[in-house]
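Incident log entry.

Two folding requests arrived from the same account within the same minute. Monitoring flagged them as a possible duplicate submission, but the sequences differ. Recording both here for audit purposes.

Request one:
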Amino acid sequence: MIEKAIKKINPNAQFTINANDINQITWLNGTTPIPIANIQAQFPIVEFDMAMEDLRSKRNKDLQDSDWTQLPDNTLTSEQRNAWMQFRTELRNITNGLTTVEQVKNVDYPDKPNG
């Protein structure tokens, strides 16, 4: 998380971190040191980004795994096809309006339809 926080502040920063200890950062190649408090201030943002990344990854896998339902030669009934379309729409919209880690962790994930 420390590295991601630093990169949020300065994407070009060059540094090493010993034992993942925020007090043991070595700044390299003339990178201006970033105060520890500034790095720590980025932790909630990084945590949110990581939670969203995980949610999007799961969502994207479920969208990919259900792509077959949208092919014209599938054997789904009209009712099943509509259920899958609704599921996929809910998946695409799942990240809308999320602004906190708590909201991301409490997302009401849609159930996969039968068929």
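Request two (distinct sequence, not a duplicate):
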Amino acid sequence: MRVSAALLVLSLLAGSPALAESVEQGLEKTKEYGCQTCHGKDGQGIMPMYPNLAGQKAVYMEQQLKAFRSGRRQAEQMSIIAEQLSDQDIADLAAYYASLKPCP
């Protein structure tokens, strides 16, 4: 009984629950939003101007995508795409790219 009460208090203090990210959904969203066009199917940028995303930390990816979405970070194409992303989309994309083996 004490443990469940403590868990309830902790969950209330934590605020809204974290999004349950999905690597599989992230892969599908890379296709849906055209991420693979610049960042490649395996998370390796197709040209030096496009960053490698494979193995990037999920927290960092989420921060950057939200910055593009809000306009705090500017890049013409990324800003256009990020405006369409929900918080769940961002969590899924970040989980997918974080799951990939980092680029050499």
